[in-house]
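Running log. JK asked me to keep both predictions on one page so they can be read side by side. First protein, sequence followed by its tokens:
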Amino acid sequence: MSITIKDVAKKANVSISTVSRVINGSKPVSEDIKKRVFEVIEELGYSPNPVARNLVMKKSKLIGVMIPDISSTFVGELLNAVEEIAKTYGYDIILCNSYGELKQEIRYFELFKSKQVEGIIFITRKINEIHKDIIKALNLPIVMINRDGSELDVLSVSIDQAKACYDMTNYLVTLGHTDIALIRTGDDHESFGVDQVKGYRNALEENKIEFNPARVFEGYFSLEETYKIVDSLIKEGDKPSAIFAASDEMAVGAINAIVDNGLSVPEDISVAGSYDSRISRIYRPKITTIKHPIYDIGAIAVRLIIKKINGQEPKDKLIIMPYEIIIRDSTKRI
């Protein structure tokens, strides 16, 4: 028969509420009583039920993490940081893979609610009006990764997408490229895609190169979708001299399409990516990319949630992280 808090209270000659206060540290208890209660707990081998305790304390010690693609190397590296830092604060994570589908995202928000998570780290491919309603109703600390969360009135951690895309495009121009295709991760309906085009366009126009909207494509973080785009361009005889894919997986898709069509990277087409995830370093040719501080982004996301949980309001809702252009073997001067 398992030992209950009632047994501890009886043996220690105190009330059940006193035992609860000693265990939870919720209210002051004299040192003598505290010592007596702990001695009885040890003697009887009592172990508090963590679920019941969390319900009383209104703390689940859980953080929900929703991602669109668990196979992404960027996501994998980010999760390492999120889990590691969460553990240092005594929190566990509930991980949900939405596949970028709105229906799944709605379902997982409900799951987070039922599990009483104390905060959510949310990565999505596209913001929808439904997200705004759900997030407002949840009334939880939420941090978005790599996008400006102001449209949802949540915290966010990101690099400056517009400036980073400007710098990468400008680098390709310095190599002599004037026909550069941008394969972005978003579209015109959300800030992610808009910022990428803004930086790309500004770099072209400042270098007296006409911006051509037909050279902007939507890859939505997909290697397969990017492959189709590049394969089609080559087969139609419309290949650019350089491709800037706004994620490393998309850059791999572009390179695969180029090679499968009998061409070479960077001899025939230069390719650049973004994130500096592990795949950019192990793929051949090694991919020129924008280095995001992936571990730091995940760590800061967790710390922002912990701050909110503890009643501290972060100074800034959008945390802008530094980035770096990493030059490797997939780009060359023409």
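And the second, directly underneath as requested:
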Amino acid sequence: MGGYENGDSPAAVAGEDGVVLGVDGGTTNTVCVCLPAAMPPPESPAAVPILARAVAGCSNRNSVGESTALETLEQVMTQALTMANTDRSAVRAVCLAVSGVNHPSDQQRMLEWIGSLFPGNAKFYVENDAVAALASGTMGKLHGCVLIAGTGSIAYGVTEDGKVARAAGAGPVLGDWGSGYGIAAQALTAVIKAHDGRGPQTSLTGDILEKLELSSPDEIIGWTYADPSWARIAALVPVVVSSAEDGDEVANKILHDSVQELADTVIAVVRRLRLCGEDEKDKFPLVLVGGVLEGNKKWDISGEVIKCISKVFPGTVPIWPEVCMFVTMPF
């Protein structure tokens, strides 16, 4: 849920009541905001008095390893506190919403680690980033479904009585199809297959070679495995979208298949929780987050996903958050 730069925050001053930290940890980047602990409930996202905002790299432990992920989290929190002219002793609460936190044991390890960094009277919350993404679209109310499609993908839902369900979010090896990584990996595979004569010719070949400044599809193999980080691969999504907009059949098939994968991910969660009611016609909020779902002009991925879901659940109410999770999570 990026798009931020360090220091990009409105003027505000930390008070004697201390501060709270909210961290949105993703596979592409990690964002931390520092907020006054005495802040009243905001009437709108624009009313939140952000003291400081800091940005760092990937903090998904499944992508970069636990040690590097924790280093990134500590770095971004320290940076936010420094920018707010305060320190760890002023922290009253920390909310970590991090991709890759998939099991209670993951939460417990993170809670023990974060507790070693800050005062003993501080409150700590650790969740998967999908929980925070849902809250970001509902101003803190955990009800409905969220679809994240960035470097990875996940659908996460919560009923009004607290039942939860998720689908996907298992990483590229186990199939985050429809994610940025999934789209780009299929495009790279299509280029190799076309080069081998095992697949149709595609303009993706020339477009990707130009983007990567390579001269032959043979070089793609070395480029891919030189640094197979998920975000690096996923960064090729705009090339795939551009090729599809120019009419390439292979690129269009990749995007259509990805749309269906994302829609099926949401449908699975909504059905499991019966968010749509017994007759599958009740209204429910669907929060959409992530770079794959954002603003393509001609090839509107999020629009196509919503069409697929709405055919099954006509009560789908799509929401695009105005603000990232850390403003709306209940500290």
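Observation for JK regarding the second prediction: The longest helix spans residues 249-273.
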